[in-house]
Amino acid sequence: MSGRYLLRRTGLILYTLLVVSVLVFGITQVLPADAATMLLGENATPEQLAAIRERLGLNDPIWTQYLRWLGGVVTGDFGTSMRTGLPVLPQIAEALSRSLLLAALSIGLMLVLALPLGILAAVRRGRPVDLLVSLASYVGISLPEFVTATLAILVFADWLGWLPPTGYVPLTEDPARSLLHLILPVATISLILVAHVSRMVRSELVDALHTDYVRAARLKGLPERVVLRRHALRNALLPTITIVALDVGYVLGGIIVVEEIFAIPGIGRTLIVAVQNRDLPMIQAGALVMAATYCIANFLADLAYAALDRRIQYG
Amino acid sequence: MTTRRQILAGATALGASGLPATLRAQTATPRRGGTLRMSVDQAVAKLNPLLTRVNPEYLVAELLYSGLTRLSTDMTPEPDLAERWSASDDLVTWTFTLRPDVAFHDGSACTSADVVASFEAMLDPATASPARNNIGPIAKVEARDPRTVVFTLRAPYADLPVMLAYTNARIVPAALSKAPGLARLDREAVGTGPFRLVSYEPERQVVVERNPRYYDPQRPHLDRVEIVVYPDPTAESSALISGSTDVMMLALPTEFARLQRASGVNALRTPSGQFCNVNLGCDTAPFNDVRVRQALALTVDRAAMVDFVAEGFGTQGNDTPLNSAYTYYRELPMRRPDINAAKRLLAEAGHANGIRATLIASDRPAVRTQLAVALKEMARPAGFEIEVRTMPHATYLEQVWRKGSFYIGFYNMQPTADGIFSLLYTSNAAWNETRWNNAEFDRLIEAARSTADTARRRELYGQAQQLMHRDVPSIIPVFFDLLAATRSYVQNYKLHPRGAVFRLDHVWLGEGAPRRG
Known about the structure:
- The structure holds two protein chains of two kinds.
- Chain A is mostly helical.
- Chain A contains 13 helices and no strands.
- Chain A starts with a helix and ends in a 7-residue tail after the last helix.
- Chain B contains 16 helices and 19 strands.
- Chain B has helices spanning 2-17, 21-25, 55-64, 112-123, 160-163, 181-184, 233-241, 253-261, 290-298, 302-309, 339-348, 367-379, 393-399, 417-424, 439-449, 454-471; strands spanning 35-40, 69-71, 77-79, 82-87, 93-98, 138-145, 148-153, 195-201, 205-210, 224-229, 247-248, 265-280, 314-316, 355-362, 384-391, 406-411, 474-487, 490-491, 508-509.
- In chain B, strands 1, 8, 9, 10, 11, 12, 13, 16 and 17 form a nine-stranded mixed beta sheet that branches. A four-stranded antiparallel beta sheet of chain B has the order 4-5-7-6. A two-stranded antiparallel sheet of chain B has the order 2-3.
């Protein structure tokens, strides 16, 4: 891997982000209603709408608005929220930090659980352990987050009283309480991820265990542990990494339901609120952050590919 | 003279004694101290008190800021920054006297100049404050001396002291009342309220603590209040039941039974003037014919509407926007469903073969859709073929609201009868959705505005309700009760029928309250 490759990749990511910002800006223009309408709701009078549009600069041509926004971003100024009047950047950073914490814990837990479970099921294919893991992951995949989350709250908070039902406490404010509040949301998200990834690991590993090179390795007299780790698993993990990379994106943006139920104001919720209120600067910044996360996660996945499979080289 | 004194008597008497009624009536001595954690269902997106629009924002504004008057639970005005007031005989000139020695959070004095500047900001169209249309026909606000403010009105207006308690009519420092200073109030709070701001995060929580400079040394009883945002209603109830929170601002009917069963929880309920209605465009066929409107109203089973739309937590509406929560409500015989009479009226109006119409409902709140679907079924036997179209709230606001002639509306209770009538139903109403434009009705409302005599006003508003009940500019089948809950150690929290008033400065924590913070 060369420096030129890294540079090209970074350029590509920036280009993607630019395209995303144009697309998102364009789409918001097609949506019915604007920030002024949403701000005033059923309180609006024409003169108030006009006053607010004037103040927010919504009367300018679209391209003027876009260039004004882009000019700000290039100089590090993401503007102020049309809804709250607060600066965008600290809010997005705050929301992202919460989502990242949630994502890191969930993905960590997933890796700790999904890999061993998937391997165990593949190695013991057709046995009771395999059936149990498969069944559990079916349940995990088919139950939507809002069901598992609500059930978890009812059981662990309402009935048993072991954990706080919802709410978010920053790590900096009270680390112990913060982690206590994170247990249920992390468990909810991990359940789905584990189900997802362990099934992937299992099916890939099952395929790999039936390949010629694994048979060759076995015939060579290698111990089963080495066959598994050095030959089968290494190849089975490649597609799994793609899935994990996509899951990182999912955890950052797709867990709005979990963020909503557990009252965690993360990036997903911030973006939904921004879209509902046609809060352009917040929508733009939120969409950029999400797009950047996907880009970076995929980039890292590609690097991991190369590390696992020597045949893959980037130049 | 005696008549006008009647309206003012209550307020001035309270001003003299210096203690609000709720506090005097109380038997137990309030305990001082503690942190109250209250959950709300929406973000506190606006901190600026002149621009707040939803209940959690009103709550925070009420903690941090004061008005000239405030609304007691029986909908009468009581002194806040103004300790007394009086009106000229023609109700056009009103004089308010401020408390002495009131200070803002930053220590600067709050004088009549700040009051004048605040009202000028509310009335300035560039501020876009909802107060502008809701605090009465104010022509001019002047400071006579540092403690006296004089309002000159464009027309006589008996309700001024009540309307000055409006949610957005808060006093801010003169220096911050205009751009660019006004923008600072999006981030910080400089008010005269019972609490001052500690931290503010729109989507998560707002923390306030006791304002040591508050004008009443007795209040607030609490040291600290934390307002926490819970977007999911089930999770919000769970937080209260498990003791993570102390007060839940608003409970859904679907959660209420669970809260009633929970131990250590007081479930609260009060009838309110909040309603859902069906707006009929009185200038557009077929609803320009009063017989068609009456026919549709006759198909509605109001008891069933309360059960279906409000899940039983409501009262029946009689096609006027007032119910028992309003002072000037007149009880008229409830309109009962009568399909044959409805068919007859339709036939007389030339629609013997029935009417087809598309009823539009926004998807927020969900009761709008429920009402639309119920009406469709109830009206069918009389010959109304109603097609229900639901749409996202944003689309509704842009395309249908105030433009359509057959759609579902949803309104909060207003402090006065005049507030709701002149907001929605007079010809010059700010949101004249029905285009009813009835001269007789306008005259009655106008006359009631400029009358100080309570009995006479009662008569005028009674006639106005009768007229509306007969003419049906909009079908109002159901009023919603307000539901909430507290932990049982929370003392003196009263659910206010208006829905937008909370008075947490009167609340204290009794035996069994947990230590927080």
